[in-house]
Amino acid sequence: MRALSPEQLTDFFTLLSLAHQSKELLSSREERQLRRSLTRTLREREIPDAAGLADTLSKMGIITPDPILPLLQAEDAPLILDTAYQLSVIQNNSQNIQLAVDRAARIVYALKNYVRQDISGIPIQASVSEGIDTVLILYQNQIKGGIDVQKMYEPVPLLLCYAEELVQVWSNLISNAIQAMNYRGQLAIAVFEQNRHIIVTITDSGKGIPDEVKARMFEPFYTTKPAGEGSGLGLSIAHKIVEKHHGKIAVESRPGQTVFRVSLPLFVLIKRHPTPIEFYP
Q1: How far is CA 212 from the centre of its chain?
Q2: CA–CA separation, 135 vs 127, rounded Å?
Q3: pLDDT tens across 147-203, in order?
Q4: Domains of the chain
Q5: Which of 3, 76, 120, 129 has an alpha carbon 20 to 30 Å from 207's alpha carbon atom?
Q6: At 148, is the secondary structure helix, strand, or coil?
Q7: What is the dihedral of CA 117, 119, 121, 124, to 10 degrees?
Q8: What is the pTM of this model?
């Protein structure tokens, strides 16, 4: 390809910038509609090879050719446009790789936090919101297929707690919510402070929990899942961990909305063998 003039070079970088800004993935039908629209626009402006140029522009997600019309009027416009398209593909691939690396790093960090054991058995100051986010990262593959996650985190103090055990609570509640929605729906998580307690609510848009199940759901080994798909211990363990923190866990449910509410006091006596340790504000 010949060297571009300064004006054409400016248009070339404008084209790359427009392609970079185009984040929305188009369906095959939408891309065909865009290609037809671009073809009409280019023909109206008497651009040669309108259909071919429109095909490349649509692949790059360019909606309007107006900012780069002088470039499209060049004799070797098809070659210039194809070069820009190849560069945009490389650029997008590099960004995807970086996103994948960042996501993998977050997952590794979350796994390290999840499996880390506090062998001292002493409560530590920890962020409740960060513990929940750790679980959301671990369940990302189950969430991204069709679950809209809404997080409403208010600033709250660090909690003196057994952080790894609380992560088990959030893991059980979020996992149950995902399954209750059959992996499609809305998951809303709120964290806020109320009456010297940290409150966590986890709300799903599933079919709801019948009253007869609600009455027994915290019993050990009680499950409504098919044989081999659940031990019936998840909610029982979550209940015991919350009680260990002198907190409370409750559920309200109706078709289309189930809310688990966990209340954790900020300053309490947390038991530890062989002697208790008291924490003060």
Answers
A1: 33
A2: 13
A3: 999 999 999 999 999 888 898 899 999 999 999 999 999 999 999 999 999 999 999
A4: 6-97 (no CATH), 123-278 (3.30.565.10)
A5: 129
A6: strand
A7: -60
A8: 0.56
